[in-house]
Amino acid sequence: MRNLRKKEHGVMMILTLMLLAILWFAVLSFSAGSLNSLHASAAYLASERAITAAESGLTYTVRSLRENPEYRPGKAGIPVGEGGEKFLVRLFSPREAPLDIPEDCLYLESTGFARTGLVRKAVAVVRVGGGSVGFFDYGIFSNSLDVKGGSRVAVFDSTGKTQDLDGLPLVGTNSTKKGEVRLHSGAIVDGAVYVGPGGETKDEPKNPWMPTWGTENVVWKNWSATTQGEKVLDSEVEYPEVEAPDSGDEKVKVDWKGADLEPGAYRELQAGGGGEVRLRPGTYVFDMIKLQGGSSLKVEGNDPVIIYIKKNLDITNGSFFNSERKARNLIFLVEGDSHVDIRGGSNAYLSIYGPKAKVKIKGGNNVSGAIVADDVQLESGSVFTYDVALKNDPPGLPGLKMGGSGSGGGGVSVLGWYRF
User: Fold this and answer.
1) This prediction's pTM
2) Radius of gyration in angstroms for the set of CA atoms belonging to the chain, rounded to a whole number
3) Helix or strand or coil: residue 274?
4) Mean pLDDT of the chain
């Protein structure tokens, strides 16, 4: 009996030791898993701190350039707060930049350092414009904008040089009145909307699909209407008014045979029956232009055709406008409160400048270029696409000079921003 009890005690001892060993290994395994999770969390936090430091470097440099266009970052890192993070910014001229950028731009590379030593980077391309924005630094700039029926304001670069098109200033207004920018159900703006200084905005609502219709916001969005953010201008953008030269007495009518038209002053132009009106580079003056029935304008050469409109511009019924498909080659300078109507499935590549003009695009049109007007309406599923080449390589407008800093805040605008 005594030997049996000894054996039982020995078995119990072994079982107890085995159980303790299992528990010990379980504790070690749990501790290792927790430690790995802590390491992963710490690495993620360090990564976020590093990229935040890098983007702080870009923000700091852009602000410094706005205060002084001659600012250049130093060679030492700059601390961010008291957490141990810092950033170091390098600035490259167009010739030194790793990307092909416009001659009036700078390439910024900001390196963010977490206190753990982890490194992230952010880069940006900025234009230093010497204190004023350009005529076509926005896709649409107007006192009032109404986008209806699933219409869209999009963006592209016809030169292919601008790589990051997200968040660009696409729509602008000096107005601070509520609802001056109205985006009806299904309307889309593929960029940022800038409103007048002091205007109410709701840049990042908790629910991006939640409408702001009827609020104090300058931008009213109905259900499923979206933008890429709403911001406030640093100061109003000052657009000079158009004063057109005197028009002529000749009335030009073009049928299916087409016609060549020399620069000069005319009373009006009417084209129909699929006729092609061929325009040479230079300046034209019209009281009125009416294109219909599949007629078209063809711009010859690489220099711009500048057309003054004293009363109305009317494009209907599938007319193809500017067959060269370069918005900077066909520029309309619209005097006073003249009307521009593009409707009926027309395709157009043009730039419209008329700070007091009324522009209406409806009927499923596809229009590319830029617009400066008093009132702009997009209806019936029309698409207006801003060509940022008009900003990167702006055309000159005779007798007109821009003023005001707008969103550029001292003549500096951000063309693209990327983090990695």
Assistant:
1) 0.67
2) 30
3) coil
4) 84
pLDDT band of residue 171 (cuts 50, 70, 90) is: very high
pLDDT in tens, 271-304: 999 999 999 999 999 999 999 988 988 887 778 8
Is residue 188 a contact partner of residue 208, using CB atoms and an 8 Å limit? no
What the block records as the tokens of 29 is 């395994």
Number of H helices, E strands in the chain: 2, 27
Question: Can you say whether residue 161 is alpha, beta or left, with left for phi > 0 and alpha for psi between -120 and 50 degrees?
Answer: alpha
Name residues whose C-beta falls within 8 Å of residue 227's C-beta, 6 or more positions apart in sequence.
171, 183, 189, 191, 192, 193, 219, 221
Cβ atoms of 148 and 378 closer than 8 Å: yes
C-alpha count within 13 angstroms, C-beta hemisphere, residue 112: 26
Nearest to 372 by CA among 345, 413, 347, 400: 400
DSSP-derived 3-state class of residue 396: coil
Q: Is 40 helix (H, G, I), strand (E, B) or coil?
A: helix
Rounded to an integer, what distance in angstroms lies between the CA atom of residue 320 and that of residue 331?
15
Q: How far apart are CA 75 and CA 94, in angstroms?
A: 20
Q: List Cα–Cα distances, 134 to 141, 209, 293, in angstroms.
A: 12, 33, 35
Measuring CA to CA, which residue among 370, 419, 4, 374 is closest to residue 191? 370
Pairing assessment for the beta strands 192-195 and 169-172 based on DSSP bridges: parallel
* Residues whose CB falls within 8 Å of the CB of residue 148, separated by 6 or more in sequence, listed in order: 184, 187, 377, 378, 379, 380
Q: Which two tokens stand for residue 158?
A: 């016809």
β-bridge partners, 283: 306
How would DSSP label each residue in 316-383?
Answer: -TT-EE-TT--GGGEEEEE-TT-EEEEESS-EEEEEEEEEEEEEEEESS-EEEEEEEEEEEEE-TT-E
CA distances from 183 to 44, 138, 156, 228, 250 (A): 38, 17, 21, 13, 42
Ordered alpha helix ranges (H), 273-325: none
Two structure tokens written together for 371:
């617009």
Region 18-29 average pLDDT: 68
In angstroms, rounded to a whole number, what is the distance separating the alpha carbons of residues 340 and 68?
Answer: 40
What is the arithmetic mean of pLDDT over 342-371? 90
